[in-house]
Amino acid sequence: YTKSCVTPLIGAVPVWVGLAKWNKALNFVYPGTERCGPGNRSTNGHRHSGQSISKCCKQHDEAKDYILPYKYHEKSKLKNSNLYTATNCSDDIKFFSCLYNDSASLSYEFGQVFFDVVHVPCFAHTFPIKCKSYSWGKCAEYEMQKNKPKQWQFLHAPSFYKAYTRRWFSDNFTVLPDADNSWALACREDNQMNCSQYDFVQDAAKMPEQPWKFIA
């Protein structure tokens, strides 16, 4: 899919391509890596390749707080109804950041497949999120209900494709923000999440200076 691709310089990974390529070897380890799989799939004893992306995946594999597929989390009582392991958002955010800061095309591709295609949520203890305003029958703006008690809940990552494109291709492309109900909103609004320092968290909510020049 990407090995022989020359143009365009960037592009979103189609869902069917991402899923088909992920399980190409029937082991759910992403091609070109030794330990990058869904959730926090660990390959204990497998020799580490030393690639940047494999280092990111190794760190994520070693997360201690997670919920196996179709199991309950002892502390939060949340049930993971997904096919893949759900991890505490603190570890998913570090994983997102690790891939985001790696300029290799494989990190760009795998980050999209993990966060945008498979779309496995993470879980966190934070304020409830609700829709603040609608446009054309869809939520246009979300907000955190800080007047209500915090609760354990599942959250999704912001678009990895958009974040990475802003990070590495901002000279050529501008990306419009989405209505934000991801953990990026929780990071900005809840200091106890301890993740507001990441630039992709702040950039996710910014309008571009030249909104007529956008890709998504």
Automatic annotation (TrEMBL):
PANTHER family: RH14732P (PTHR12253). GO terms for biological process: arachidonate secretion; lipid catabolic process; phospholipid metabolic process. Pfam families: Phospholip_A2_2. It comes from Ornithodoros turicata. This is Putative phospholipase a2. It catalyses: a 1,2-diacyl-sn-glycero-3-phosphocholine + H2O = a 1-acyl-sn-glycero-3-phosphocholine + a fatty acid + H(+). The keyword Endoplasmic reticulum does not apply. InterPro entries: PLA2-like_dom (IPR016090), PLipase_A2_dom_sf (IPR036444). Its cofactor is Ca(2+).
